[in-house]
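User: I've been going back and forth on whether these two constructs are worth ordering. Before I decide, could you fold them both?

Assistant: Sure. I'll take them in the order you sent them. The first construct and its structure tokens:
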Amino acid sequence: YKRGSCIELKCDINKEKEAYIRFETNEFEKVGPISSVEYGPIVVNYTTLYLLKNATTMHELYLKNRKEIEVYKVLKKISESKGIKLRKEKEGFYIGKDFIKILDNGDIKFNEEIKDINQINHILNY
């Protein structure tokens, strides 16, 4: 499908030959509600149906991969049970004053130290 073949949207000059993927839907499924937090709404680059169905806040839609989803679920549970503020940042998460980042290789950095999710769960729950 070439961009120039799309009659529903105006095509920018010199982009007519770019390859595009067209999705046709039969129906839309309602999800939500999903509330904005801290930075308000932004353009979503990637999300999944799982995240759409389970998100309660906007930043839950921006999780990058399964590891980040796994870590987020643990942090969210701790946040709710302990009354600690959880905040998603571009590079990771703040839970209270602690910073958690998922590295490209899948390791989890907790305040500059590599930890596994069970260690983080133990530290934050005591």
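The second construct, handled the same way:
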Amino acid sequence: WTDIYAFAAVLYRVLAGTIPMSSPDRRNNDRLMIPARVAEKLPAYVIDALINALQIMPVDRTRTAEQLRAELSASPSFVENYQDRNTAVVNAPPKKQAEDNIYDARDDREYDDEDDNGKRSSGGGGKKLILGIILGIFLAFAGLGVFMFYTQNGGIINPTPTTAPHITTAAAETTANDAFPVVPLFIGRNDQDVKNDAVLMGKFDIEFKEQSSVEFPKGIIIEQDIAPNDIVSKGTKIILTVSSGLPKVIVPPLAGHDYNEAAEALTALGLYCIPAEKVNDGSNIGGAIIDTIPAEGTVLEQGADIFINFWEYINGEPKPTAAPKAPVEE
């Protein structure tokens, strides 16, 4: 289907004088038109053939080179189908063109002044256009013949005729979609749901990486490196960033350190310190930390509580200050 579009684009360039946009670029802003000055010089079936071959979606496009040649040449089978579709308007008087792909370009038509009998004759520009159209159609048929010979006979390198397996329309569409899948929206989904989706994992090479987040809970996808709705080839690598939850803090070794100093340091890490004084008989240094709950080496999320056991201050030593709950940075 891509070859059909490319061939039709060459024919359009020859006839209209401009290069048509690619089909992906036309999806969001389709401005492709056949100028009326060209359309009025061509049979309706040639215009239909060109429009059919330049359809944006592959499933709506002319399927084979044989079908395109039949439409361009108005073969008996195609003419019969074409006449069946247009029976109601065959004998109708000419009317204003209303096709979406043709625009009224009266200003583009070149006419000489009326002669003495009141008749209009086409100018030099019109003659050149007709010659260009005839030459374009001739080149199109020549190119299409070469294209059909190449595709049907396995190419120049392998001239031995091969029989292609029969593929139904539904199967062909499925094959095309599988070969060039559309990237879905992953953000907001649970990473386990994606990992368990055999269809998605078969279409893309998905890699997961973790990153802390104060906005998304653990396990939720927060970023994807390829935007949704992009069309990529099968097996394209996509990196998904998954929230690992709030930022993590490892409880440091604090035994023997002064409580007030340790509480200040832990608060800066985002933990909430809860003091727990133990009776001091005077044999221990006041304020010295005995241990913590959870113990050193434990991984905590920012905002978690940590209990600190320490010897009470004696002999006028400073009292412990309970550090305020540390806010979690967003």
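Notes on the second construct follow. The chain has eleven helices and ten strands. The radius of gyration is 38 Å.
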